[in-house]
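USER: I would love a firmer grasp of how sequence relates to backbone shape in proteins. This is the protein in question:
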Amino acid sequence: MPTQVPHTDVLLTVMGAPHESDLVTSVLRMAQAMLEGGATVQIWACGYATMLTQVGLGESKPRDLANWSTVYPSMAAVVQEMLAAFPGRLHWYACRFCSDDRGAVAHIAQVPTRAPAKFAEHVAAADKTLYLGVM
């Protein structure tokens, strides 16, 4: 059965390496602000941004030698927390081609992969689309 893309107010398309700039922080802050304001948001991760939701990231980042007692959540855990905090209002997708090309095939359960040809359905389902990162 085909996947129905839910209508959302905004589609944030993340295209680029997640640790190259403030791209991921900007996307998460924008998404959270919009969600807290009552909007519905979908995020499409493409390119190396597909690495953000890998199961292998675990629940937390490796410990910081300078601050050993502090535990920081992994990006996968942050995404899971956001999806749980805004059920039915936040949807996160990973580009299947980009995931396969980078060996990023083990996404957290809440993040489905979608073929690049389906991207147009996501654009059509959103009132506004914002591209962030490298084109």
User: Anything to note?
Assistant: The longest helix spans residues 23-36. The beta strands are 8-15, 41-46, 90-95, 113-114, 126-133. The chain has four helices and five strands. Helices lie at 23-36, 75-85, 96-101, 119-125.
